[in-house]
Design goal:
With 230 residues, the protein is an alpha/beta fold. It has helices at residues 13-25, 36-45, 62-70, 86-94, 107-126, 160-170, 179-186, 195-209, and strands at 5-9, 29-33, 50-54, 77-81, 99-102, 134-137, 140-143, 148-151, 154-157, 177-178, 218-221, 225-228. It has 2 domains: 5-126, Response regulator (Rossmann fold, 3-Layer(aba) Sandwich), CATH 3.40.50; 129-228, Orthogonal Bundle (Arc Repressor Mutant, subunit A), CATH 1.10.10.10. Strands 2-1-3-4-5 form a 5-stranded parallel sheet, sandwiched between helices. Strand 8 (148-151) and strand 9 form a beta hairpin.
């Protein structure tokens, strides 16, 4: 049985009850909050392995809460919202979200996303990547222990997802990697059209490692995915 503790933040009591029921039936320990301030108080006093976060909350926006959480800790954050605006979704992911599910949703799908994000973090912490703690490609040196990249003697910090996307691309150079292929490898969950999630994280990765005037590492293949150039 899982011993992971999950915080569910939503002002809809029916949604909280539904999510909590499915998570508890899957073996997780669940705590809940109805607003951002309540969530912040619980985060100060407890350690959570994953947070499920609504965006439209009564006191302030869930994306603002996400930013506050990221200032002091890292755990996977899954946004759950009825908002279907693409720019808004991209912004939410840019502000620190790991995944995004639109309401209404299948509770089993949400549990699957929770499981995949927790598996990803467990793998990152397991040390499986430390057999070769450093990997150099072109002028990038990846540090598997610190999730950083050295470029031109400058250390660049990547999020765990950005790091794993880069690592996956490096291991499959000069090949078109579909959005779904990247998602299924990095999130370890079946893709159900998660193009935007992948695009946001790749965009952030590019900003950190690319020269804006010259595409040197990651090439966009329109409507298909990306290619790591080697």
């Amino acid at each position: 049985m899982n011993k992971h503790t999950i915080l569910v933040v939503d002002d809809d009591l029916d949604i909280i009850e539904l999510i909590s029921l499915y998570l508890k039936n899957s073996g997780y320990i669940v705590d809940t909050a109805n607003n951002c301030n309540d969530a912040l108080e619980k985060i100060k006093s407890k350690c959570f392995d994953l947070i499920i976060l609504d965006i439209m909350l009564p006191d302030f926006d869930g994306t603002t809460l996400c930013q506050k959480i990221r200032q002091s800790m890292y755990c996977p954050i899954i946004f759950v919202s009825c908002i279907d605006d693409e720019d808004y979704i991209l912004n939410a992911l840019n502000l620190g979200g790991d995944d995004y599910i639109r309401k209404p949703f299948n509770p089993r799908e949400l549990v699957a996303r929770v499981q995949s994000n927790l598996r990803r973090v467990a793998y990152e912490k397991s040390g499986n990547k430390l057999i070769h703690p450093h990997l150099t490609i072109k002028d990038l040196t990846l540090n598997m222990e610190k999730y950083t990249v050295i470029k031109n003697n400058k250390e660049i910090t990547l999020s765990p997802i950005e790091f794993n996307i880069l690592l996956f691309m490096i291991h499959h150079p000069n090949k078109i990697l579909r959005y779904s292929e990247i998602y299924e490898h990095v999130w370890e969950s079946k893709s159900i059209g998660d193009t935007r999630t992948v695009m946001v994280h790749v965009s952030n990765l590019r900003k950190k490692i690319e020269n804006n005037s010259n595409i040197k590492y990651i090439k966009t293949v329109k409507r298909r995915g990306y290619m790591f150039l080697l």
